[in-house]
Amino acid sequence: SFINTITFNIFCKDKYDVTITANDNETGIASVEYLLSETAISESDIASETGWKSYSAFSITDDGKYIIYAKILDKASNVTYVSSNGLVLDSTAATAPIVTTNGYNPGGWTNGDVEFTISGSTALSGIAKYQYSADNGASWQDVTVTDGSAALTVTDNSTTNNGTAYIFRAVSNSGMEGAPSDPITVKIDKTEPTIEISGNTADYLTVDTVTITPTAGVSGIAGVT
After folding, report:
1. Rounded to 5 degrees, what are φ and ψ at 34?
2. Which of 5, 69, 106, 118 has the smallest number of Cβ neighbours within 10 A?
């Protein structure tokens, strides 16, 4: 059919093969032509368009936005126009995202949660989702996009004194995985330190030694007073 309201919601990252099939039960088909356009053409204006090409099966290989129009002519000179919906071919990786830590100083110890905001990636086909990796890209986890940005809250204690490095990337609507962000190291230690004090409390002495033994979580002891 001829689609009057075009939505560019067909995405691909490789070549897009185009096949147009035409039938006429009375006189038969005289010719089939096609036209590629980046913008929608109204049904009232399509007949005046120029640049039609004789159809044979073809592939779209260049990145861009496309609407495929077809002009079908039967042997009695009747013409029918049909169109595809909007297609976006996007084989280019999305740009690296902008990552903010909302007040957290990367690489420093904190006893609270760390909140990331991920945004700013661009792609011809748009951004479908953001992802993060905590193992240097060996595996990726999805972060849902809301109003163009995504959020991740890290709550768990770090397992080593070096913390955990997080990287982020975008995935476009065509499925292209984007360039990763620079790593951001998170160090969380919510474990309250403990202290043990020992000494001779049974006798009167002129001098004695008090032994103070502190313990702490993964961040270690900063000081004892």
Report:
1. -135, 160
2. 5
- Residue 215 pLDDT > 90: yes
DSSP string, the chain: ---SS--EEEEESS-EEE------SSS-EEEEEEEEESS---TTTGGG----EE---EEE-SSEEEEEEEEEEETT--EEEEE--EEEE--SPPPPPEEE-TT--TTSEESS-EEEEEE----TT-EEEEEEESSTTSS-EEE--BTTBEEEEE-SPPSSTT-EEEEEEEEETT--B-PPPPPEEEEE--PPPEEEEE---SS--S----EEEEE--TT------
pLDDT, residue 190, reads 97
Mean pLDDT of the chain: 95
Over residues 141-172, the pLDDT tens digits come to 999 888 889 999 999 999 999 999 999 999 99
Location of structure tokens 């990786």: 93
Stretch 11-23: mean pLDDT: 94
Q: d(Cα 9, Cα 88) in Å, to the nearest integer? A: 7
Give pTM, 2 decimals.
0.83
Q: Are strands 109-110 and 184-188 parallel, antiparallel or unpaired?
A: parallel
Report the 10 Å Cβ neighbour count for 17: 10
Phi, psi of 99 (to 5 degrees): -120, 125
Contact assessment for residue 210 and residue 197, using Cβ atoms and an 8 Å cutoff: yes
Q: Which of 28-42, 62-76, 172-186, 197-211 has the least mean pLDDT?
A: 197-211
**87 DSSP β-pair partners:** 10, 66
